[in-house]
Amino acid sequence: MSKFTTLEQHASYGIGLQMGQQLADRPFDGLDITAVAAGLAAAYNEQAPEVTDEQIRAAFGVISERMQAAEAEKAEALAEAGELFLTENAKRAEVTVTASGLQYEVLVAAEGEKPTTASTVRTHYHGTLIDGTVFDSSYQRGEPAEFPVSGVIAGWTEALQLMAVGSKLRLFVPHNLAYGERGAGNAIAPFSTLVFDVELLAIL
User: Fold this and answer.
1) Structure-model confidence comparison of residues 91 and 75, the more confident one
2) Catalytic residue (one of 125, 172, 188, 191)
3) Where are the transmembrane segments (predicted)?
4) Which residues share a beta bridge with 148?
5) Is 153 a catalytic residue?
6) What is the DSSP string of 164-187?
7) Is 172 a known active-site residue?
């Protein structure tokens, strides 16, 4: 049974949970939750801090450098993995490589009008990382997506102009034609090569 029984304790505990979740979203190696609680208590109770401002600034600087180095190392590994994947993938006979470096495989062929950069289209799609992790899928949502051809990542803008209504391509998109060095949210890390199955349903 919880030792926190009053409304005030429940609210206070909730504040702590929220702060803990924020810390967990971007932790660093060695984060000491006991020290976090001590700092919180000292500030709230207006007590003299046990660690000087100078020590805190120095620690923040070192930790920040460590985190940046770790992110850079991760990004470099992802870029190398993507390049290796694309190099091997390009050897397959069914894969076409365009001048930009975009790779695609025709899953369903169709003839007819193709979109331009001025078009708006309706598509179904399924997006994964090269390890198969799904990060977005209109198929899973059960609802197609509509968007301007010029309003998506460069790899999609190029590929859509190769497609007629009813066609379906599997795209292998290098990071520079996707979300590049920024990535996208928590699902797509910087320098990620992406794989999409894209079905063109209509030109609107």
Assistant:
1) 91
2) 125
3) none
4) 120
5) yes
6) -TT-EEEEEE-GGGTTTTT-BTTT
7) no
